[in-house]
Amino acid sequence: MIVAVTALDFGPIVLGGNVFGWTTDRDEGFRVLDAFVDGGGRAIDTADAYVAWLPGSSGGESETIIGEWLARRGRRDDVLIATKVAALPARKGLSAANIEAAAEDSLRRLGTDRIDLYFAHVDDPEVPQEETLAAFDRLVQAGKVREIGASNFSPARLGSAAAIAETEGLTPFTVAQDKWSLVERGIELDVVPALEELGVVEIPYSSLASGFLTGKYRPGTSTDSARAGRAGIYLDDPRNLDLLAVLDDVAADRGTSVTAVALAWLAAQRTVAAPIASARTPEQVADLLAAATVQLTPEDLEQLSATTGPVAL
């Protein structure tokens, strides 16, 4: 067994930065970040590719907003910053040259001298993992990166990266980031066992399934949201309608929101250090942070888990 234990403390929830520059502008983003940190949050996840999908954007907008907030508020030492490389169209892949250039770009946009957690946003089978890991390791040795992570990697590639890092004496991946929620549970079949074997922790993205697990998407209702189309797809599965009923019951019993229950379920899963969830407005932040105070019983967890169950991707 290869053990790579993270030294990073993510707090109860990692704030997703994918909305900054997309559904949340700079000023509202500042208010969201204020509410998150003032409420006890201490980890923020972003990427150089956010929000390159938006017409007129080139990527890096989310990092820029976070960097301006850090400078304006003077909160750099109060938060953990995670960002990513490999998916931005202008900086694609995991070659050594691209990793090094992308890291400098991210550091500049974030206005900081270090990235606490630097992810490979997607795998790049065209580049030898030895080259990729050596490039990440140089950033760690230079003090520009504290730890490195792997997002959307297969179990086999996680395993080979761990073996190379151990053999070559390079910095290993200590954190993974994958899609995981009560309605997206495929990683429980293969990725989660691999993470357990490797000693890698998980900070899942899409923890609220594009907002579906907030409970605001119901049959016969319409919601004005940029993510409504993706969230609405989950209504096509009868199991997910059953899940909403269970979430409603558990939330009522615990005196909390459906959002907090869904996040608390995920936080209780094997290998999870903290779920990632985003907020478009300061008012939404409270429900995210409330997950830390929700006490789900073993019966609650079993009932929620049984409603959907893991399905192969």
Model description:
- By secondary structure, this protein is α/β, with parallel strands linked by helices.
- It has helices at residues 26-38, 61-73, 96-110, 129-141, 155-168, 191-198, 228-233, 238-254, 258-267, 282-290, 298-308; strands at 14-16, 43-45, 80-85, 115-120, 145-151, 173-177, 201-202, 276-277.
- Strand 4, helix 4 and strand 5 (145-151) form a beta-alpha-beta unit.
- Helix 2 (61-73) crosses helix 3 (96-110) and helix 3 (96-110) packs parallel to helix 4 (129-141).
- The longest helix is centred in the last third of the chain and has 17 residues, at 238-254.
- The two termini are 26 Å apart.
- 49% of the residues are buried.
- The model has no long low-confidence stretch (mean pLDDT 94).
